């Protein structure tokens, strides 16, 4: 092989090959673009999956399906929701962390749960920060303390008073060990200086069934319980945030309910595997933000008790760094451990 052949430059479209100036310019531009930028222009070229680390029927699952339907319209490709529950969301997270970083496997979860797993689980196969590429926030909402309507507790103070009289006797359901409602309940218990007995389930749905069946005394849930509150099947005692919310009218904040210095909100966000090309992440983020401005999708989220709250990948990255530090401290201070 001659030196000329060894060092020959890649073929470029010649003038005769280009049908007009516009086609020639487009071809030359494509040749000059980085591979990741070309990939982003073509994305998505096949169906996209959103992994949800909870069973079907919970609020995260519902939110993912609302978003997936709108993304599919914009992408002109199917967007599927796939449920991979268990182990406090770490099964779903591990699956996404090991997926191909091409933008076709996304992860929807709560930043609080995702951040706290770093402190709660000692042998994770992934790092909650470094193994993921933040894509963007979707929603914000409060957690809600709820009881069965037959419960003698009419207020949060009633519940705490009963717990003080019978330490460890009152039980609460949660969506899983290490999930945000588990953390929120233990933080409130520590603040109020009481003990509750934790009954973990694999997702909000099964935990909610237990409370509706009067098998546990209370639970802290995200907005998945809003329909039951509206129908009188559950009684809301308080929100876990420092301020009341128009999303849950008439329900007091933690401070208003007599437990100051507790402020724990819920949110949902989307992540991709680390190494996903930045232009692809930017395209997904821009598409999400655009569809979330749609009045129809906002109405659907608000009907579930969510407030739409978007942002950039950088916003979510900063939030995750802060939340990992914050919940690491909370786990150490409260002594929460995985059963």
From TrEMBL:
**Assigned protein family:** Belongs to the UPF0065 (bug) family.
Query: Which residues belong to the signal peptide in this entry?
Result: 1-40
Q: Which domain of life is it from?
A: Bacteria
InterPro entries annotated for this entry?
A: BUG, Bug_dom1, TAT_signal
The protein's name in its UniProt record? Tripartite tricarboxylate transporter family receptor
Q: Which Pfam families match?
A: TctC
- Alphabetical list of PROSITE patterns matching this protein: TAT
Transmembrane residues, as ranges? Answer: none
Keywords (A to Z) from UniProt = Receptor, Signal
